[in-house]
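A protein record in our archive is deliberately plain, so that people and models can read it alike. The record that follows is passed on verbatim for readers who wish to inspect the format.
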Amino acid sequence: MLITTSYDPQPEQWEAALALSGQLKQLDGSQMAVRLVERKQFSLPRLRQRYSDSDIMLVSRERIEYYQEHQPVLFFHPSTAAIRIKRLINGEHDPLMELSAIQAGDRILDCTAGLGSDALVYSFATQGNGQVTALESRIIPYLVLKHGLGMYHSEVPGMDEAMRRIEVVQADHYDYLQKQPDNSYDIVYLDPMFRKPIHESSSISAIRFLADPRAVTELTILEARRVAKRVIILKEHRDSGEFARLGFAAVKRSTTKIAYGVITL
């Protein structure tokens, strides 16, 4: 993988690229060949050709971007979270927050963070008094999310603060749950890659090829039952058999293809 910057980088961009290179090498256990290269005036296709490497992580002034040939560029953006937060500000309802019975001061564990849309809404809804821990097992999405939450600036009141409060951890959710004390989180939330994908979802397309494709296991739910104090929520395709397989007795369906399964503790 190549690490580079946008054209004519500021010193802080180069420093960020250097730090990112070190993080990748550390997280990957040196299994990935990571090279920090100067952008100069090379286009991305020219860099690929010059260094015989198709994967590029680019550090710009506003964000980091991940490029892989024939795949959509991956970068952090709050996406639908910004719309949902605006609705909360206006006193409108959010189905996930209602199912969670979210309260100020809640501790939430998002086991499958992806690009953090639901974690961001949770963080905003706790009104600055709670804590959201967002787990992402895959290295590239983890770094894009962690840096994005720290760099992105929004004009939506309170959203920047909500982003900065989220703790992002690179971990497999089952391994992480095993290490947590009983009743240590009020809410445990799971939004895995759907067993029946929604291909028309533009927000998922950029991360689909990088995300962990594994299904949630029964052992994970057993650990979640121990760790969660109040509720476990699973987001899946409305026609999914995962709700029944994993013991989610209550399923709230909507007019979209998305549904939420709930285990109340």
